[in-house]
Design a protein that fits this description.
The complex is a heterodimer of chains A (552) and B (364). Chain A has 552 residues and is an all-alpha fold. In chain A, 76% of the residues lie in helices and 0% in strands. In chain A, helix 2 packs parallel to helix 6. Chain B has 2 domains: 152 residues, 3-Layer(aba) Sandwich (D-Maltodextrin-Binding Protein, domain 2), CATH 3.40.190; 126 residues, D-Maltodextrin-Binding Protein, domain 2. Classes of the chains: A mainly alpha (552), B alpha/beta (364). Chain A: It is found in: Cell inner membrane; Cell membrane.
Chain lengths: 552, 364
């Protein structure tokens, strides 16, 4: 594709032309939807599928929100020990590829799995939980996405002024009322942001409903769209588009709910994050610590162990004994396979660039959105959220339509390079940063800025000495999400990559498809362990730095 | 109607893309391109000369865009072998699932022009669809003489490249008596023990459903019986293999070579070719009608079908399409296999109805 000329400069006619095209598209789009809806919606199966989708998404989001809020509260308020380490473990479910999580739970609960043999020892007859069910889907989705809620909520909780809670408490309110009537309303901006992102992530997830739902004959919107796209019948694309619009409407309802909740929430008056514990667990501390760590270790170690085991056995289906154990799969994926190394480099480049770009643009947009909210940037936010809500396959197809020949006969040369992946990632993940930054801004009262302004601080100074330190934790948790999500992205990449731009997710996908689950597990293990080592390294550095500060 | 989908979606994304500032992104793409060029230089050092004296001596050269659903290992071996004979052709690969490749190709076609020169996908029915839309280039390779004619398109639009039979796989620890017939899957012993890929998600499985439903003694009743017997469906062949090798299910309907590979590595799994015959997909190869580099495309197709090319994929574990060549151990070759087949064009025309029928039987 190197031989295609890439004209440069003079953007204005192009922009004008694009705007013309947008209008035309929109008009055609609307006409087409009106014609197609009646057909798709008149089928009983469509309604069944929408019902399945709603049950799955609401159930899993409820689970994510409860777990996320609980852990955020524990880390922000209680005197539980080793909080930073705890935080790393809370993030693990999010970085393990979802197919590994699904596979490991089905193995655990399967009839040859450890759970079944444990139940066998009991005198009465109990079957292990069937993971291939709506319950299984809700469980795995909820576990995979609760870290999203946690990340958005923990900073908000820390910023809630403790005197408010004290005041309520000294007025005689019991703790659960303080929590419900003071803490929760103040935490709503973060909880609603995290809940929305988890909601959307549950809605457009394909891997988990495909793995657990197909055997149970449960179809949801994302798998139905896939069925339509690959059916490539005469009206496949238009039916897929209709379903995508339904999905977009569901996502929109979620966004509306989030806006409504934020409007209802109370504005904060303080700005400083408060890291000191507000709640002592007292004599329950050991018990609670044991329970919390037990839970976290269980939900992280189950998938990690299953991944390790598969990566170490000679062949799938053999028991892990010293005879069957081998490191050869690791050697193969790391040294004999020339794709793995370049995939790691590509993914780091893509995730890094995407994060940097989103951090700047997303934060700037979030600033505008929270300081000067109006209809225009509200609609813009919906447009930014949409690509995250659409199934990856649909977004990837849209990217092809958009970038192959933006003007008929002119190929700008981005399609077929790593550039198209970068654009796709930025388009898809920008909303994560926007929500992260917007949550951070909602914590900083405008009066802080005004105060700085009144005292004559220049814009730069205002940002550097006042806003940045206050905002940084919130901005960085958004950036962390963008980075981790982009690093292991799969569906968009599987349609848009080209020679030389393979990504981590793609290498895993290719091994899986070819039936080499031992290789894909070995490679996934390498990736997950690398991320973990990175996070633990950061944690250790933090500890050393803290000690130094304390000593000096 | 087809066109509207992309347009409406693209509309919203255009807004975004312009909001994101396309400049920055274009720069990145530029950088990436440089990087890529460097890699290419390493891959085939004498590439640059090739671009200049293109085909001056009748030798093919230039770049060739190859879209395939083969596993990396297979595609890499083919390209390496091809480059030994034609070092001046640089093959750019896009590899993904058949479903992903075909979606990308059709989307490209809608957006302007398909970017592939050569296509290699799972089954012939997919190629029938492309043929129907006039997307293929007619080419009669000199290698066709060695290939049984039922695996070659009569209009010369595409040719099978290997024999992939869907067989009956079983877990050797769970099954004592080796099954012999497809009917064993609907027997009482196999209740809740059978797993297969879903025709709703896998093109190859849709092909099997098309064939079985049109074969005497099977029909849709076969699928009804499978459903009665609590047969499980999963997304693809890889999932079937995992479930049977891992002992979650005793029997699976799955492509033969993945079973042979797993068996060779030591998994507790084996395969049989049922006595009624087996559906065969052939991973056909075809050239796109608007291929930019037709010469190189034809040379590439010749190589894939040639004895050397077939030898390479046999080493990876596939059954060659050439009649005279021996298949890998445990697998049946082109001569030996008892193929169940049906009219390809008809199956293409009725694929929607077929999956619909399947959905009626297996749906909730």
């Amino acid at each position: 594709m190197a031989d295609i000329e890439r004209p440069k400069g003079d953007k204005s006619p192009l922009l004008f032309w694009k705007n013309q095209r947008i209008t035309t598209y929109l008009i055609f789009g609307i006409i087409f939807f009106i014609f197609n809806y009646s057909e798709v919606l008149s089928e009983g199966r469509t309604w069944q599928m929408i019902e399945n989708t709603m049950v799955m998404v609401i159930g899993s989001t409820a689970l994510s929100v409860s777990l996320g809020l609980f852990f955020a509260w524990l880390v922000a308020y209680s005197d539980i020990r080793k909080k930073s380490l705890l935080q790393i473990f809370i993030l693990i479910p999010f970085i393990i590829p979802s197919y590994i999580v699904s596979l490991s739970w089905t193995e655990l609960m399967g009839r040859t799995g450890p759970f079944a043999s444990m139940l066998d020892m009991l005198p009465f007859d109990i079957e292990p939980l069937n993971m291939y069910s709506m319950g299984g889907m809700i469980f795995v989705l909820g576990l995979s996405h609760f870290p999203l809620v946690y990340l958005f909520t923990v900073g908000v909780l820390r910023s809630i002024p403790r005197d408010l809670e004290w005041a309520a408490k000294s007025g005689g309110a019991p703790s659960h009322r303080v929590f419900r009537e003071v803490t929760l309303p103040l935490a709503l901006p973060g909880l609603a942001s995290g809940g929305l992102i988890a909601f959307i992530a549950n809605l457009d997830n394909f891997g988990i409903p495909a793995f657990l739902g197909i055997p149970a004959n449960i179809t949801v919107l994302s798998t139905a769209i896939y069925q339509e796209v690959i059916g490539f019948g005469s009206d496949a694309f238009s039916r897929a588009a209709t379903l995508s619009v339904i999905l977009a409407i569901v996502a929109l309802m979620g966004t509306m709910l989030q806006w409504w909740l934020v409007k209802k929430s109370n504005q904060l008056e303080t700005t400083q994050q408060d890291h000191a514990p507000r709640f002592t667990l007292g004599r329950w501390r050991i018990a609670i610590e044991t329970a919390v760590w037990g839970f976290l270790l269980f939900i992280t170690i189950v998938p990690v162990l299953s991944m390790l085991r598969t990566s170490l056995i000679q062949a799938y289906g053999l028991p892990l004994t010293s005879e069957n154990a081998t490191f050869s799969h690791y050697l193969f994926v790391l040294f004999e396979n020339d794709r793995a190394q370049s995939a790691i480099m590509n993914s780091i480049f893509l995730a890094g660039t995407t994060t940097l770009f989103c951090l700047i643009v997303g934060t700037a947009f979030a600033y505008l959105r929270s300081r000067r909210p109006n209809a225009l940037n509200g609609i813009l936010e919906l447009f930014i959220a949409l690509p995250y809500a659409l199934p990856g396959m649909v977004l990837a197809l849209a990217m092809i339509f958009m970038w192959l020949e933006p003007i008929p006969g002119w190929n700008p040369g981005i399609y077929g390079t790593i550039g198209i992946l970068l654009i796709a990632y930025i388009t898809r993940f920008l909303i994560l940063q926007v929500r992260g930054s917007a949550t951070a801004f909602s914590q900083v009262d405008r009066s802080m800025e005004e105060a700085a302004h009144v005292f004559g601080a220049k814009t730069m100074t205002k940002w550097k000495s006042i806003l940045v330190p206050l905002l940084l934790p919130g901005l960085l948790s958004g950036a962390l999400l963008v980075f981790l999500t982009a690093l292991t992205e799969l569906t968009v990449s599987s349609l848009l990559w080209s020679s030389g731009s393979e990504t981590i997710g793609l290498v895993i996908f290719n091994f899986e498809q070819a039936g080499y689950s031992t290789y894909s597990s070995a490679f996934s293990t390498v990736i997950v362990l690398t991320i973990l080592v990175g996070m633990i390294g950061y944690y250790v550095l933090q500890q050393i730095w803290k000690k130094r500060v304390n000593n000096s | 109607m087809k066109k509207f989908f992309p347009l409406s979606l693209a509309a919203s994304l255009t807004v975004l893309a312009s909001a994101c500032g396309a400049d920055n992104v274009q720069e990145q793409a530029g950088e990436a391109e440089t990087e890529e060029t460097e890699n290419e230089a390493e891959d085939s050092a004498d590439d640059e000369e090739a671009e200049e004296d293109a085909s001056a001596d009748g030798e093919v050269s230039g770049t060739l865009s190859f879209y395939t659903s083969q596993p990396d290992e297979d595609a890499d071996a083919l390209i390496e072998g091809f480059n030994e004979i034609h070092p001046d052709v640089e093959v750019e690969v896009f590899r993904s699932g058949t479903e992903e490749v075909i979606s990308r190709l059709l989307a490209e076609e809608e957006a302007g022009s398909a970017q592939a020169d050569v296509l290699l996908l799972a089954d012939a029915v997919t190629f029938e669809g492309l043929k129907e839309d006039d997307l293929l280039h007619e080419y009669e390779s000199p290698e066709l003489d060695a290939i049984p004619e039922q695996f070659v398109d009569e209009d010369g639009m595409y040719t099978g490249t290997k024999i992939m039979s869907t067989v009956l796989a079983y877990n050797t620890e769970l099954v004592e008596d080796e099954p012999v017939s497809w009917a064993d899957l609907t027997s009482d012993e196999a209740e809740n023990e059978v797993i297969m890929p879903s025709p709703l998600y896998s093109g190859a499985a849709a092909y099997n459903a098309g064939v079985f439903s049109r074969t005497d003694g099977f029909g849709w009743e076969f699928y009804e019986d499978l459903h009665e017997n609590d047969t499980t469906t999963v997304q693809g062949n890889g999932d079937v293999l995992q479930n049977v090798a891992g002992g979650e299910k005793a029997y699976g309907m799955v492509v033969d070579f993945v079973v042979a590979n797993a068996k060779e590595e030591g998994s507790p799994i084996d395969l049989v070719y049922p006595e009624e015959g087996v559906p065969v997909i052939t991973e056909p190869v075809g050239i796109m009608d608007d291929a930019e580099n037709v010469e190189a495309a034809e040379a590439f197709v010749d190589f894939i079908l040639s004895e050397e090319g077939q030898e390479l994929s046999t080493e990876v574990g596939y059954v060659p399409i050439r009649a005279e060549m021996d298949p890998p151990e445990d697998l049946q070759g082109a001569e030996e296999v008892d193929e169940l087949s049906a009219d390809l064009n008809e199956m293409m025309q009725t694929r929607d109805e077929d999956t619909e029928e399947f959905n009626m039987i297996f749906g909730e």
